[in-house]
Write a structure and sequence with these properties.
The protein is mainly α. It has one domain. Helices cover about 80% and strands about 0% of the residues. It contains 4 helices and no strands. Helix 1 packs across helix 4, helix 2 runs antiparallel to helix 3 and helix 3 runs antiparallel to helix 4. The longest helix has about 30 residues. The two termini are about 30 Å apart.
């Protein structure tokens, strides 16, 4: 059974690192075309949520102490980050094709703002995971 835990934790960490890393990178450099990364980012977020649910089941179950409260805050901020990416990056990225230059500038500004907001939320998520055991 330990192999299941190891694989689940590995997938959770790798998907989370990709999701947070690309989001923070895109937030810092809006010249990188965010539309090229939104689908892999959303796929990684789905993997994070799936493996996170399994890890919660394996290690926390029905118990809800202070550690679980901190993790729950991290989960909420991760859901918010996924929602922001979906609304502020995925939507505008679909409308980029065939737009004029002025509209493209507006859409790219909205996408950059979405990446910045999501990056901040994911930083809170990572901090919650890092300090949860110490609470």
């Amino acid at each position: 059974m330990q192999y299941v835990y190891i694989v689940t934790i590995g997938l959770h960490v790798m998907a989370g690192v990709f999701w947070a890393g690309t989001t923070i990178t895109l937030a810092r450099d809006p010249e990188i075309r965010a539309e090229r990364f939104i689908r892999p980012q959303m796929g990684a977020s789905g993997m994070v949520f799936l493996t996170g649910a399994l890890l919660w089941y394996f290690f926390h179950g029905a118990y809800f102490g202070s550690m679980e409260m901190v993790l729950a805050l991290g989960i909420l901020t991760a859901f918010a980050a996924a929602g922001v990416l979906g609304a502020m990056v995925a939507g505008p990225s679909r409308r980029l094709a065939g737009t004029d230059a002025a509209t493209e500038v507006q859409l790219r500004a909205r996408m950059a703002m979405g990446e910045r907001i999501a990056a901040g939320l994911l930083v809170v998520t990572v901090l919650c995971m890092a300090i949860a055991r110490m609470i």
